[in-house]
Design goal:
There is one protein chain. This protein is an alpha+beta fold. The chain contains 26 helices and 22 strands. Strands 1, 2, 3, 4, 5, 6, 7, 8, 9, 10 and 11 form an 11-stranded mixed beta sheet that branches. A 6-stranded mixed barrel has the order 14-15-20-17-19-18. A 4-stranded antiparallel beta sheet has the order 13-21-12-22. A hairpin with a 2-residue loop joins strand 7 and strand 8. Helix 9 runs parallel beside helix 22. The two termini are 43 Å apart.
């Protein structure tokens, strides 16, 4: 133990003596370890941190898939819950569905995101209310007939002032009285950011038609996820045989709870970020290794003296590794501070509220990760200098000068190889970063099929008994759109079920004439003037009239151009009939118009089905929640207050929400791509900077080591231009090898970006030609600076120094 502390004291003194090298190495490592710790904090918070449930590793979800039709991740009908409970693989099965609610007691209505849950769900999760009790089974009911409500801690404090007498009090939810069963613990917002819950049950417990519930189950202790999936196959086959109309071709998929909310592309992107900062750390390690190799060469005589007085090779290696590890641990401590700043900056760049079980803090797992990579990097960059320095020929080493003894060809080749590797890794990282940035820029400028300038969008949920009937809903939108259209600053207004470039729509089956099988299409409902608001002219035919919008028996449709061309390649389709599956039967619609295709899904999430579009009049799809699109004559943001006033005048109990201009919505829906693009660009810039520092460092060290040789050459007639060319030529060779290797690596590595970028080819010439060429030019410039210094060496001074 005394020897161990002696080594630490010696290492600290040694690092203090070489302050310049130590500070440079510390800065490189702190940056590399800091960004690695920061990214791991984010990845850990999203993918690895245990969920706040009791025995969270046993909590799963059950989804329904139809691979034949390409329908994935569907919810289940209420009646399927009994079959899942009887499957023998789960200790408990519950379910939920997210819903919007409007709290209508008090002076002002407040719209909240919430969920309807089966009464036993909170007990399954192992979460107890902070006040009150769990839901009772007799309080559950279908939408609008629940008898109880559970409040989040935040809602209880903000709306009810933390009144502990709230339990068993009656409040009005969606303009109906419900009893407050309890208040959930602080921070609980299951499944993601919900603030209010009601107990759900079906009007018909045997219902197999309406798919709206996502089951949450706890696996039995003796059952794995794979076992549960295999045994549910038999259940899905039995249901398909018993209920062929609703369950044919469907199968169950068992998934970890977290995986439902963090999809595969997001997981891939997060892990890709972790790999990218790994590249940055490797480049930093290469730089530090080069610095320590140079310092080891300068310490060659010192090490030889130690060996001469009896120091074993293992002892010398341990001294060097102790220095490297001490340096890495100090850099790791600074890296934690850098990571805290980086995580805070990342959190500020995320415009939406994250799921309550996601936290980006630096916890014990993150600190353990930082300690691990600090020790690992210390061993990685310290091993080569230690091994090189410990190879000693005492007979020659003590006779030579320190500079001559340390300047061996193997060490020079190793330093060159490390710089080449740095450049190659930088090219790979920069190529990927360039693709990510270009993808974001393409998303920002992509054409959604309509003019999104000067347009305000907002959503309205029509809750309460008065909207149980369709005429009341259509009358509401007639009054609201008429009132908004009368505003002098408004050019046009319409209500729609889906906001283009933000929302998808429900998939239904369309039966082409004389076809044996249907095709999946996406339906959208709207009021009159919908296409006017978007600034879109129909290609053929006409749009809906006000009478058709309010008529539940209207059988008219406007088709997207892509779908029309598929159904009638030789005709325009106007006057033709299409058949849509509705409620288990087929309903015919007359095609009255052909519209240009719009982008409804967020860019990058467009599916083949969402491009086959059927527009229906509102009364045919009278959803309670709709969006209002308002085309202004100027600043769209200025429309918010007068539009809210019109909605409030039509019904004071309704609270508009998600109010954004379409330009802001466009920026909002592309924030992940912007964040990932900026992050990868930052990593690429750091990698490039480290690589250029590496090129400069190696060339500067080479010039310093060869100072005497250069002086002699110049003394016997070598011109400065020849010296300059020789040094720059070596930098060029290193850079060319590194860039060439990096381009080959980039061709292979960027394949992992497939499906993660939009509108950019993986073989994009900017990423794979222009960026490497730019890095090559910068590397040559980095090599030119020490080369220019070499060309100015005074032969007399160089020989006198020796």
């Amino acid at each position: 133990m005394d020897t161990f502390f002696q080594d630490i004291r010696y290492a600290a003194r040694s690092l203090r003596r070489a302050r310049t090298v130590s500070v440079a190495a510390f800065a490189c490592l702190a940056l590399g370890i800091g960004v690695n710790t920061g990214v791991f904090s984010v990845v850990n918070g999203i993918l690895f941190r245990p969920l706040p449930f009791a025995r969270a590793d046993r909590v799963v979800t059950v989804q329904v898939t139809d691979a034949e039709r390409g329908v994935l991740d569907m919810a289940v009908p209420y009646g399927d819950l009994a079959d899942l409970r009887d499957a023998g693989v789960f200790a408990q099965v519950e379910a939920f569905t997210t819903r919007g609610f409007t709290v209508t007691d008090g002076d002002q209505a407040e719209r909240l995101q919430g969920a309807a849950v089966t009464p036993g769900l909170f007990a399954l999760l192992g979460v107890e209310p902070r006040l009150g009790r769990h839901f009772r089974a007799d309080e559950a009911g279908p939408a609008g007939f629940e008898q109880a409500v559970m409040l989040s801690d935040a809602l209880w404090r903000s709306r009810y002032n933390g009144d502990e007498g709230i339990v068993n009090r009656t409040i009005r939810l969606n303009d109906r009285p419900v009893v407050v069963a309890g208040v959930m613990p602080p921070g609980f917002m299951f499944p993601e950011t919900e603030r209010i819950w009601v107990p759900v049950a079906a009007a018909d417990p045997t219902d197999r038609q309406a798919r709206y519930l996502l089951p949450v189950a706890r696996l039995r202790d003796d059952v794995s996820v794979a076992d549960a999936a295999a045994r549910l196959d038999a259940v899905s086959r039995r249901l398909a045989a018993t209920y062929p109309e609703t369950h044919e071709r469907f199968s169950f998929a068992v998934t970890k709870f977290r995986d439902v909310f963090i999809d595969l592309p997001a997981r891939r992107m997060l892990l890709l970020m972790l790999a990218a900062v790994g590249f940055v750390l490797l480049i930093a390690c290469a730089n530090v290794t080069n610095l320590l190799l140079a310092r080891a060469a300068d310490r060659h005589r010192e090490v030889s003296v130690r060996a001469a007085i009896g120091a074993a090779r293992g002892r010398i290696i341990r001294l060097f590794l102790t220095e490297a590890t001490l340096l890495a641990l100090a850099a790791g401590a600074a890296g934690v501070l850098i990571s805290v700043w980086w995580v805070e900056a990342t959190a500020r760049a995320i415009p939406e509220e994250m799921a309550y079980w996601i936290s980006f803090g630096v916890d014990r797992r993150v600190l353990a990760y930082t300690l691990l990579i600090s020790l690992g990097t210390g061993l990685v960059f310290g091993a080569l200098p230690a091994l090189q320095a410990s190879r000693i020929d005492l007979q020659t080493s003590l006779k030579e000068t320190a500079r001559a003894a340390g300047d061996s060809r193997p060490r020079a080749l190793l330093r060159s190889a490390l710089v080449t590797a740095e450049i190659a890794l930088s090219v790979i990282l920069l190529a990927g970063a360039t693709l990510m940035v270009q993808s974001f820029l393409r998303l920002q400028t992509a054409n959604a099929g309509f003019d999104h300038d000067d347009m305000l969008s907002l959503r309205v949920l029509k809750s309460g008994d008065r909207y149980d009937v369709v005429p009341a809903r259509t009358a509401f939108y007639r009054d609201v759109t008429t009132g908004i259209a009368a505003l002098p600053e408004v050019a046009a207004v319409a209500a729609t079920s889906s906001i283009p470039a933000d929302d998808g729509g429900p998939t239904v089956m369309l039966w082409p004439r004389d076809a044996d099988a249907p095709i999946g299409v996406t339906t959208y409902a709207s009021t009159e003037h919908f296409f006017d608001v978007l600034g879109v002219n129909l290609l053929r035919g006409r749009a809906f009239t006000a009478l058709e919008v309010a008529d539940t028996s209207a059988r008219v449709a406007v088709l997207g151009n892509r779908l029309a061309a598929r159904l009638w390649p030789a005709g325009d389709g106007i006057g033709q009939l299409i058949r849509l599956t509705e409620g288990g039967s087929e309903v015919s619609y007359e095609v009255i118009g052909i519209a240009p295709d719009l982008t409804y899904e967020e860019f990058g999430e467009v599916s083949a089905t969402s491009l086959l579009q059927v527009h229906l009049p509102y009364a045919r799809r009278p959803y309670r929640q709709m969006a209002l699109l308002v085309r202004g004559r100027g600043d769209a943001a200025a429309l918010e207050r007068p539009v809210r006033d019109v909605v409030r005048a039509a019904d004071p109990l309704l609270a508009p929400f998600d109010v954004l201009t379409m330009n802001d919505r466009r920026r909002y829906t592309t924030w992940p791509q912007r964040l990932f693009g900026q992050t990868f660009a930052t990593f690429g810039a750091v990698a490039m900077l480290l690589a250029l520092v590496g090129v400069y460092g190696v060339m500067a060290y080479t010039v310093n080591q060869r100072r005497r040789e250069i002086g002699i050459r110049m003394a016997i007639g070598a011109r400065p231009a020849q010296v300059l060319g020789a040094v720059v030529g070596r930098a060029a060779r290193l850079s060319l090898v590194g860039v060439g290797t990096g381009v080959l690596g980039a061709f292979a590595v960027v394949r992992v970006l497939e499906g993660l970028i939009w509108g950019v080819s993986l073989t994009d010439p900017i990423a794979l030609v222009a960026v490497p060429a730019s890095l090559l030019a910068a590397a040559l410039l980095a090599g030119y600076v020490p080369a220019r210094r070499a060309a100015r060496i005074d032969p007399v001074e160089a020989l006198r120094d020796e």
